[in-house]
Amino acid sequence: MSAPRAVVLVSGGLDSATTLAIARAEGRDCYALSIDYGQRHRIELEAARRIAISLGAVEQRTMRIDTAGIGGSALTDASIPVPETPTTGIPVTYVPARNSVFLALALGWGEVLGATEIYIGVNAIDYSGYPDCRPEFIAAFERLARLATKAGVEGRGLHIRAPLLEFTKAEIIRRGLELGVNYGLTISCYQPNASGSACGRCDSCRVRRAGFEAAGVTDPTRYA
Fold it and tell me: Which residues contact 214 (CB under 8 A, 6 or more apart)?
C-alpha cells in the first residue's frame, strides 16, 4: 500500500522546514508547495527548493499570485519599512489573508493529488502575533475545507495539520535537528541582502536568533 499523500507548505524558513521533516517522519509522501506572492524576500523561494530536495519531497511546486493589489504589508510594499525594533499589536509585516490564501491553494492541489492532509508550520508561541497563526484559525479552515471541496462532501475531507502550533522556537529547532534538518539551508529574514545574508534586526531574525540561543545550539544563519 502506498503512503498517504500530504501537501506541505514550505516557505524556505525554519518552521516550514521542520514541518516538512515531521510530515516525512510520520510516513507521508510529501508534496512541497511554495508561494511566490510578491514578497520582498523572494530569495526564500530558492531556500524552499533546497529544503524540499534535502528532505525528500516527492515534488516541489511554486505557485505565483500577485498581492500587490492588496498591499498593506511591509513584506509586499517596499514603501513600508520593515520594523527593526519590537512593536506592539499586529506588526506591519502581517500580510492580509496570507495563510487563508496559501491554505486554499494547498487545498486545491491536495484535492487533485488525493492527499489526506495539509501541513502548515504556523506557531502560536514564539511568533509575531499574526491572527492567521492561531489554533482557532486552523480549526476554522479545516471546517471550511470539508464544506468547500468535492472530497469533503464525499467524506474524504483533508485535515489541516499544524504540528508546531504549541512549540517554542527552541523546541522546534531541537525537533528539527533530531529529524536531520539542515537549518543552514533555511532563511527567515524579512529583508535579506542580495547574497541571502540575514539582516539580524527584523522581528523574524530576532525570534530565530533567540530560538537557537534557547536551544543551546549554534545558529548557522549568515548575518550581514
Answer: 168, 169, 170
SS3 content of the chain, % helix, strand, coil (to 5): 40, 10, 50
pLDDT, tens digit (0-9, with 9 covering 90-100), for 146-180: 999 999 999 998 999 999 999 999 999 999 999 99
Which residues are CB-contacts of 187 (< 8 A; sequence separation ≥ 6)?
Answer: 12, 13, 41, 43, 44, 47, 196, 198, 221
Architecture, CATH, for domain 5-183: 3-Layer(aba) Sandwich (3.40)
Grid coordinates of 20: 516538512
Confidence of residue 131 (pLDDT cuts 50, 70, 90): very high
- In the Cβ-directed half-sphere of 217, how many Cα atoms lie within 13 Å? 19
Contact 200, 223 (CB under 8 A): yes
Which residue, chain included where needed, has cell 494547498? Answer: 106
pLDDT in tens, 106-117: 999 999 999 999
